[in-house]
């Protein structure tokens, strides 16, 4: 479970801080045409720092003043979720390292650890498939996702709002797809850690002849 959680969390932050992804999205959905280039890039730089740090004060920059009160309230909620996810990921890594150290004291610990990585990869692939199938009807999936994370319902805005201009629904669809790709790549790395040593272990031994 820890490996699965770490895989998804790591993939999320890999996409979340990827500024090339934002550049491509802004070009694809016409954000640069509507707002220019430097404005959206500056806002994204600030939002990445703001949303990943609980110590960032809302009045430290004028960039948040560009948003309405409802948008700022939603961004504050998003900040809370992402900061929680960051620390949850760090704690999960620590627990995983401790668990691996404890497992190393067991007999056949190498086989147990390999199985952990292999089973985790199977679980990740299964979850990715489920998420992909659910996302085929993305508007419903997107709405359900927000209802779970933001039960207060402060996630709907007018079509001409700055948040929607920067991050239309298509942006989140692309984000979800890239997240799944990154998740699968990380999971494959874990699979290699689990399977490659096992393959080497199965190589026939040569008899030593005197």
**Number of helical segments?**
9
Per DSSP, what share of the residues sits in E-state strands of 2 or more residues? under 5%
**Structural class by sheet pairing and helices:** mainly alpha
Shape: elongated
Essential attributes:
210 residues; mainly alpha; 9 helices
Could you give a short description of this structure?
Helix content is 74%, strand content 0%.
What does this structure look like?
The chain is mainly alpha-helical. The protein has one domain (2-200). It contains 9 helices and no strands. Helix 1 (2-16) packs across helix 5, helix 2 crosses helix 4 (38-51) and helix 6 packs antiparallel against helix 9. Mean pLDDT is 85; it is low at 199-205.
Blueprint of the fold:
Elements: H1 2-16, H2 19-28, H3 31-35, H4 38-51, H5 69-103, H6 109-134, H7 138-149, H8 162-166, H9 169-201
Helix pairs in contact: 1-5, 1-6, 1-9, 2-4, 6-9
